[in-house]
UniProtKB/TrEMBL annotation, chains A, B:
<keyword id="KW-0472">Membrane</keyword>
<dbReference type="InterPro" id="IPR012382">
    <property type="entry name" value="CobI/CbiL"/>
</dbReference>
<keyword id="KW-1133">Transmembrane helix</keyword>
<keyword id="KW-0812">Transmembrane</keyword>
<dbReference type="InterPro" id="IPR000878">
    <property type="entry name" value="4pyrrol_Mease"/>
</dbReference>
<comment type="pathway">
    <text>Cofactor biosynthesis; adenosylcobalamin biosynthesis.</text>
</comment>
<feature type="transmembrane region" description="Helical">
    <location>
        <begin position="127"/>
        <end position="146"/>
    </location>
</feature>
<dbReference type="GO" id="GO:0009236">
    <property type="term" value="P:cobalamin biosynthetic process"/>
</dbReference>
<dbReference type="InterPro" id="IPR003043">
    <property type="entry name" value="Uropor_MeTrfase_CS"/>
</dbReference>
<keyword id="KW-0808">Transferase</keyword>
<dbReference type="GO" id="GO:0030788">
    <property type="term" value="F:precorrin-2 C20-methyltransferase activity"/>
</dbReference>
<keyword id="KW-0169">Cobalamin biosynthesis</keyword>
<dbReference type="InterPro" id="IPR035996">
    <property type="entry name" value="4pyrrol_Methylase_sf"/>
</dbReference>
<dbReference type="InterPro" id="IPR014777">
    <property type="entry name" value="4pyrrole_Mease_sub1"/>
</dbReference>
<protein>
    <submittedName>
        <fullName>Precorrin-2 C20-methyltransferase</fullName>
    </submittedName>
</protein>
<comment type="similarity">
    <text>Belongs to the precorrin methyltransferase family.</text>
</comment>
<feature type="domain" description="Tetrapyrrole methylase">
    <location>
        <begin position="4"/>
        <end position="212"/>
    </location>
</feature>
Length: 242, 242
């Protein structure tokens, strides 16, 4: 087969937390598709591209696609359709094509929209795994997120009070991503449960990193979008029935 | 400070799925502590050491410690106490010390026993994140384990029927590690729920890799110890309440 398309996980943001396999794939790629957003009217912002630059990847190989920041899926879908067509053309011409994704491409990554479209076009995509953000957050402070027989529940943003109560009551460790989306419920739970262990992470591995496990500090801190809150139930060693 | 101790995550087993940061740390290390087990009476087996060899790390730097395969913690604790003493001595002498862990060192890794002992000795340990096995399993077949607002529950081994029912009833994606430990309950759930999506993984990224998402094949397959079963609830897009 001529060419091929590879989904390359970039890891959590700190450039060297990319895998050796992913780095080699990017170095060997002919063209690398990178998502970007518009900050203001003109300024293009791409976290993926900044990681590639830091890793010394030839930026001339990068092809940006602008992902509209909108809840209306029509505009986003149009962009993805165009990108899939372009990627298929490059692969068809025998080029090695990479599509980058932050964190792991198969773990809460919007890259799945593109991969699903490619699959519907009959084009197979190879994936290279990466370090998810919550794993890097834990490692950054030596926090053993889960060990032995502990359970972990990951909730992206829109937490419900009932499921949070239920999970922590079972002794689960809960990882909440995009904390502001469930802000009211999280703050209310924290206020009623000072006994649990809370670990708040923001921009881990960057200059803007903010990490705290001090209850009072988390409570007064304004949550930012790509934040992670790990809650370890005080009773996590009990209530796990055989 | 003279010397330092770093917990280095090796990733899921495929050597190049280690991070660039971890590889550089191992290359710069003066001494690398690697867990090993005895296979039979004489033959030493160390998955960690095999990864290091494949990555071209100087194996003369490796110091093995034999982890007794026993449910009695006394013998294991004794080994860990000795290792901590040795590591502290090396670090105190100004050496760069690495301790390796498969997968991610903070995610269901027995390395936490050693790190906790070191902390009690007043020695701080830096951690380098790695790709957990379940992430690599998903990527190996392009399976998007969770996306958008889906929830994921990770259960290590000793599944209870009630929590499995409860999680899948909520529409959660469930990741079961060390499937044989909960074999009876898992098989019973599968028999009663052919509608869910099952993905079984064994030795991903090695020559002995076995992966299937065929319901009937999983049901007749003898589960092995380090296997992973991902169950995506058929109703995973419903029942997630705001």
């Amino acid at each position: 087969m001529n060419g091929k398309i590879t989904g390359v996980s970039l890891g959590p943001g700190e450039p060297e937390l990319i895998t050796v396999k992913a780095l080699k794939t990017l170095q060997a790629a002919d063209v690398i598709f990178c998502p970007a957003t518009l900050r203001g009217k003109e300024e293009r912002e791409s976290k993926a591209a900044r990681i590639l630059e830091a890793l010394g990847i030839n930026t001339a190989k990068i092809r940006f696609f602008l992902v509209p920041m909108s809840t209306d899926r029509t505009a986003v879908n149009k962009v993805y359709d165009e990108i899939c067509k372009e990627m298929a053309e490059c692969a068809g011409a025998g080029q090695k094509v990479s599509l980058t994704a932050e964190g792991d491409a198969c773990f809460y990554s919007s890259a799945h929209y593109i991969f699903e479209k490619l699959q519907r076009l009959g084009i197979s995509v190879k994936m290279i795994a990466g370090v998810p953000a919550f794993i890097a957050a834990g490692a950054s402070v030596g926090l053993h997120i889960v060990k032995q027989r502990e359970r972990m529940l990951v909730i992206p943003g829109d937490v419900s009070a009932e499921e949070l109560e239920s999970a922590l009551n079972r002794g689960y460790t809960v990882v909440i991503m995009k904390v502001p989306l469930g802000e009211e419920i999280v703050r209310s739970y924290m206020a009623h449960h000072p006994e649990e262990h809370y670990f708040y992470f923001e921009q881990v591995g960057t200059a803007a990193e903010y990490i705290t496990s001090v209850y009072a500090e988390i409570l007064k801190h304004p949550f930012t979008y790509f934040s992670i809150l790990v809650i370890q139930a005080a009773k996590r060693h009990k209530n796990i029935t055989k």
